Amino acid sequence: MNYLKVLVLSTALALTACASTLVPYVPQTPREAPEKAVERILHEQATDAPVERVSVSKAFFEYAEPTTTERRLMVLRDTIQHPVQRVYYRSIENVRMYLKRGAWSVVIEAKGGREVATVSPASEADAKLLVDALEALRKP
To answer: How many domains are contained in the chain?
Structure first.
């Protein structure tokens, strides 16, 4: 019986340790031009492979994330280009910040709660600035 309790508690602890924590944040006026902030933060994401083809306009932003694969038999790395991800500001309903084990992420949701993009800013300041910039750009 004690073994079962330990198993249930350890499973619950492991699941909560893997979860991201929603960080409440009230958007402010961006401290730099919103388009430039979005472009810089997309380029400087804290990911293994840098994003490519970032484009920011008054109506939308778009980017492509390459995927790197490794072949086990040869020392060779292949980069595969993903299709471009385009997000229109007018379709954004929510922009949320999350923290998971020291890594920041900003989740962008369209109307209806559908997740359209996740960005991994390099710092808390960049995460807040991205939220600020996207909120400023989505307002008519």
So the answer is: 1
pLDDT, one tens digit per residue, over 97-136 is 999 999 999 999 998 899 999 999 999 999 999 999 999 9
Place of tokens 């198993």: 7
Enter the pTM of the model: 0.76
List % helix, strand, coil for the chain (3-state, nearest 5). Answer: 30, 35, 35
Q: Give me the CATH number covering residue 103.
A: 2.30.29
77's tokens: 């790395």
Q: Is residue 128 part of a domain?
A: yes
Residue 126, classified by CB atoms within 10 Å of its CB into exposed (0-12), middle (13-18) or buried (19+), is buried
